[in-house]
Amino acid sequence: MTYTPVDNAVDSSSAARQGAADYPGLDDWRSLPIAQQPSWRDHPGYDAAIAELSMVPPLVFAGEVDILRDRLAAAAQGKAFLLQGGDCAETFDGATADKISARVKTILQMAVVLTYGASLPVIKMGRMAGQFAKPRSSNDETRAGQTLPAYRGDMVNGYDFTPESREHNPARMVRAYHTSASTLNLIRAFTQGGFADLRLVHHWNKGFTSNPAHSRYESLAREIDRAVRFMDACGADFEALKRVEFFASHEALLLDYERALTRIDSRTGRPYDTSGHFLWIGERTRDLDSAHVDFLSKVRNPIGVKLGPNTKPEDALALIDKLDPEREPGRLTFITRMGAQNIREKLPPLVERVTASGAQVLWVTDPMHGNTVTSPNGYKTRNFDDVMDEVRGFFEVHSSLGTFPGGLHVEMTGDDVAECLGGADPVDQEAFLEGYESVCDPRLNHMQSLEMAFLVAGALSRKD
Ligand SMILES: O=C[C@H](O)[C@H](O)COP(=O)(O)O
Ligand SMILES: C=C(OP(=O)(O)O)C(=O)O
Ligand SMILES: [Mn+2]
């Protein structure tokens, strides 16, 4: 990550923590309706876990969060594009150097494709270093006549189907914090330490299997290489190409965790949730009078809200009033996840009414969550064509309304998994038997992710 120097690290002294405890309104959420929380308040380890998280150093700094808000403000004005990607659910076991580096490389590759194709700065953001908690449709899961609590992400319980593993355990929040810290440490090393140097644009493609998107990327990398060598010969300064900014984000689902990591910034005296740079509220927890909306309205981080096909324009306007009362550019992002069938009908009234209200939110498409189906052989999957169709619909709607399609939010991995159907080197349902690894929703694999980046680059440069 490259950030302009900050001398305003969040103050994690005990005085600052006390300040966070007393900050007006920061605990109002505790008396509001709250959905999708673990049942662990009476667990013997609960108080100790909260006490520990209240003492640990912040994962991100307030100055970085402010820089991100500026970057997102540029995107809301059509001057940058947000690329946000990563697992549906990160796991503790999956936080290995190989997997993290493959995901970061894939996001960097996608960003290069987008930047080169669209001639726009791309804000790079992982669903990483904190994406450990999941809202579920059902509280329970039944297998072979046995019913146990549903898996809710490694921050809450284990994926193994045993009563011990499925118990909600607050000590997992502390492990999630440490796993986020080591993930973020590696991301910072990769993106600052030379690995993200644009002159290594070919190198990021190494180790991935050859396929149509891989070859297309190679040709683009050759073009970039040529341009870089030309600039080198002209004596250009490549300092700016050596490092990239990379931001961390996750769904702010477990308010015990988010609240415990909230600190008062010593510069401004305002609360920042230091668990990640960007936090979003999910489709299942975005009720206006809910605990989630209230808590996130009180922290200074840029906030996203998922909007599904049942969102009414009035809901979107009320969310703006609550989460962005000052109409601050970069503060609020709407991540629409309508489904390919719905987007062309459901998105226009939202965009029209929000635009007419004068609010300047950032519009991002999540083409994954409205397109989930079950394959005939029983896997939760998505058709790559549906995902692509929702992306196309998103661009069409914004193009016809004269608004800016500002970003892409995807569940993806750098690994060669088989979880979504289709793509140029098509995945079929038989491949799921060996290649399905996700513990929650199906992700685009490395090739499908690159393919999507080429499609979006084309749409952004109005060539498609
Ligand atoms: O990631 C999103 C949700 O957690 C997920 O789609 C819920 O899925 P479920 O219907 O399997 O609970
Ligand atoms: C839970 C998620 O999405 P949504 O809230 O849109 O269903 C998610 O992004 O994994
Ligand atoms: Mn998901």
Automatic annotation (TrEMBL):
Positions of the UniProt region annotated as Disordered: 1-22
Binding of Mn(2+), residues: C88, H369, E411, D441
Keyword check for Transferase: yes
Pfam family, one: DAHP_synth_2
Necessary cofactors: Mn(2+); Co(2+); Cd(2+)
SUPFAM superfamilies listed in its UniProt record: Aldolase (SSF51569)
Enzyme Commission number, as recorded: 2.5.1.54
Coiled-coil ranges per UniProt: none
Biased composition (Polar residues): 1-16
Top-tier EC class: transferase
InterPro entries: Aldolase_TIM, DAHP_synth_2
Pathway: Metabolic intermediate biosynthesis; chorismate biosynthesis; chorismate from D-erythrose 4-phosphate and phosphoenolpyruvate: step 1/7
UniProt catalytic activity: D-erythrose 4-phosphate + phosphoenolpyruvate + H2O = 7-phospho-2-dehydro-3-deoxy-D-arabino-heptonate + phosphate
Binding site for phosphoenolpyruvate: R127, E283, R284, K306, R337
Keywords: Amino-acid biosynthesis, Aromatic amino acid biosynthesis, Cadmium, Cobalt, Manganese, Transferase
Single biological process term from Gene Ontology: amino acid biosynthetic process
Example GO molecular function: 3-deoxy-7-phosphoheptulonate synthase activity
Free-text remark on how the cofactor is bound: Binds 1 divalent cation per subunit. The enzyme is active with manganese, cobalt or cadmium ions.
Family: Belongs to the class-II DAHP synthase family.
UniProt-recorded name of the protein: Phospho-2-dehydro-3-deoxyheptonate aldolase
